[in-house]
Amino acid sequence: MGAQQSVHAGKAKVDFNVDFTQMLCEALLLPPIRLSIKHPSLFGRREKLDVLWDKGLNDSNIVVAIRRPRSDWLSQQSFVIQHSVTPEIAVHGLPIDNFTRSGSTGVNLCRFSLGLDLNEPVTSNWSSKTSINFEHIRPINNEGRSINRDVDGFPITCSGSLHDNMVVLKQESQYAVVKEDSFSRLNFQMEQGLPLLPRWLIFNRFKFVASQGIKLGPTFLVTSLTGGSIVGDMAPHQAFTIGGLGSVRGYGEGAVGSGRSCLVANSEFTVPLTKELEGAVFMDCGTDLGTARHVPGNPALRHRKPGYGIGFGYGFRFNSHLGQLRVDYAVNAFQRKTIYFGINNAGS
């Protein structure tokens, strides 16, 4: 998302990208920077190398992927290594300004993972992906030191030590039908923690996203339903979080709640105003289905998150050569207002 510049160095391609997505209700911060390096034939063996580095003000993420091309009727293989550091405000953040924002409580997640992805050949309207990954998750404070408890003294790892380890087998399937005046998509994700060693997390996590869009004359209506649940071992950071962009607008990230289960419904109705400009009205709602108390340490209830929230509002979409400029004005159940601003790159 944002402005992008590409530079070719021999066979390698380097993309520089600046992401302008911001919330105007926050203080103006430096935009995240993205660096992408691609090589089409690593070591002359046709393996493709992708290196992606994102750096924000308080977070960073680097992904190294080696992709092996195979025949169309065989699974496409990718070996992926990832390291990220992100503030954990969706679960451990403290809601402020009547839940319109989530403030940090000094908990960050340092995550390292490596694994193998298998993308199955597309058949009809179905596509599927299977992956197996080793994950090492280490909570740290703002100074970078390892921690295993939050500011209230409650544990933030499942193992009770300074880190959690797990091997996760993940299956993802997607069904999509796109027509001239409508579309339908259904996505299923299933994760299974494998008990290879003692104290490694054993769990089953399920998530689905169903969305449908239909053209009504010159207007377009999009609805979606997202839900999920987790059983077995669980660290607080694995909870389903509700609130923020992509969830319930009008609330801060995770400010509605976090639980072992969740259900979120979204609807948006867009009307063309000019050739480049569209108007939109939307309504979002979400609930933790009363499962917040089953999250270790009870972070949502301790921070007095309601567990249910509704947001509605209107916005504008302006299509330009940089991408689609989006402005949303949202109101939550406490009658507090939030403005979201972003640029979606057309190629993203």
UniProtKB/TrEMBL annotation:
> Subcellular location, in the record's words?
Plastid, Chloroplast outer membrane
Q: Which Pfam families match?
A: Omp85
Q: Which UniProt keywords apply?
A: Membrane, Plastid, Plastid outer membrane
In the UniProt record, does the keyword rRNA processing occur? no
Q: Which GO terms describe its cellular component?
A: chloroplast outer membrane
Q: InterPro entries under this entry?
A: Bac_surfAg_D15 (IPR000184), D15-like (IPR039910)
UniProt-listed GO biological process terms: chloroplast organization; embryo development ending in seed dormancy
Q: What residues does the Bacterial surface antigen (D15) domain cover?
A: 106-344
- Which superkingdom is the protein from? Eukaryota
Give the chief site where it resides.
plastid
The protein's name:
Outer envelope protein 80, chloroplastic isoform X2
Q: Which organism is it from?
A: Ananas comosus
Specify the taxonomic lineage: Eukaryota, Viridiplantae, Streptophyta, Embryophyta, Tracheophyta
Q: Which gene encodes it?
A: LOC109708931
